[in-house]
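Dear colleagues,

For the upcoming journal club I promised to circulate an example of a predicted protein-ligand complex. I picked one with 1-deoxynojirimycin because it came up in last month's discussion. The inputs are reproduced below in full, followed by the predicted structure.
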Amino acid sequence: MPRTDTWWRDAVIYQVYPRSFADSDGDGMGDLPGITARLQHLKDLGIDAVWLSPFYPSPQRDAGYDVSDYRSIDPRFGDLGDADKLIAEAHSLGLKFIVDLVPNHTSGEHEWFQAALAAPPGSPERERYIFRDGKGPDGGEPPNSWQSVFGGGAWQRVPDGQWYLHLFDVSQPDLNWDNPQVRAEFADILRFWLDRGVDGFRVDVAHGLIKEKDLADWTHTSAILGGLEPAGPPPPMWDQDGVHEVYRQWRAVLDEYPGGRILVAEAWVQPAERLARYVRPDEMHQAFNFPYLDAPWTAEALRTVIDESLAANDAVGATTTWVLSNHDVVRHATRLGYPIGAARMHGIGADDPQPDTALGLRRARAATMQMLALPGSAYLYQGEELGLPEHTTMPDEYRQDPAWERSGHAERGRDGCRVPIPWEADAPSYGFGPTDASWLPQPATWAEYALDRQQGVPGSTWELYRAALAVRREHGLGGGELAWQDGPAGTLAFRNGDVLVLTNFGTEPAGLPAGARLLLSSEPLDDDGRVPTDVTAWALL
Ligand code: NOJ
């Protein structure tokens, strides 16, 4: 197969969160012209592709993951002309362009849902969603015990007494994927964007489309972005076998187009063998590797998850992906600043224990250098190349993530990783836009993370990412193979082609093999040329 058709197998794909990347008009909300104007920065960084979180018209009750029209652009972000320009600019820079597709649910403002509300029970309009009669003498109890991922019940009653299912916010009714109209509509939406030249789709909640037929009670709650459930009965709303038929159909649509168009599953599914079913040869191309992101900072845990991921993907002939941060989780520069093995955090507030920022950044740089040396494809989240931490002291009145309210304020939610990113230390909104407007407040300490404070500065996180991406490309690490090596106690070491990758998790500095020549390290080596604690080194063997 020509190289151009398999570009994704070793690609580094950079996630742009449109609300928070760059604001061209000063309204405090990022937009498409802002992204287009800053694309050169991503090219300079050395990535292969960008993935944009949703930019479609939306009431923005879940930051755009509540889509009211799948074939247009939210006026907050621009219009279709702006999207065409952005795609063209990405392509002219040699970058692939991936959009987000949200098939599990629409917005309540989507014309289909409005029609369903206006139509009677049993009507074809209601059949496109999951409407049911309630339980109890007057139908006043929800049809089953399912809980919303964001907290609270997963059913909402409508005035005529029926209930509809929403696995996420009440404003995000779940579609009925057993309905042929739903399938036909999404095949058509895929074509709409493929015809405009996009190179692929990141598929939201890919494991949720099909629900078990009888909608049986399930008493467990799904943590935010659940799917990595504790042992127990298999969840009737996640990872049903029927979803695979949908992806086979989509794959056939993509294969009608030239140039290697891809599908990427956002599927919180385990074990690795179940996840690998999404990337069988006639289904999707990639699935996010969330167990890697979730692994604690220990040599043992990381070795296990790396082995399991590679084995499961190899078995189906798929490439493995790696990811440490995205718009749904606490940024890894902050996560790694907490004690090792601390429970997964669902947002951080000013009154929570605060991270050790310096330690977090040190480990984050080492983690990233490990990730970028692993064979396969890697995902970066905007701002991590600046070493950006989570906003951990955001005043609660600014919070917009529906999980904050729906969880009864038990979860701070995801706003802390979604704050507009800093470009210029001394400009209003740190150069995010031309004014100081910013839809979420930026911490007062962020000048030091601004791009203009890091470009050309040896040792800065931005220069580290840039150097790592260049070495990764030069040595073909993404397309290589991993072979574990014996390293000093407390280290995790592997060989990928001619490069030795060693991360030191121990308390003592670790020596590199005699004759190894250092290519890059996440922090300087010590005076004796040894790799200090919480540092990753790449050396030529
Ligand atoms: C996963 C997305 O990444 C997240 O941001 C969103 O809230 C849910 N899916 C629901 O669409």
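Two points we might discuss: Residues 293 and 324 are 5 Å apart (CA to CA). The chain is about 25% helix and 15% strand.

See you all on Thursday,
B. R.
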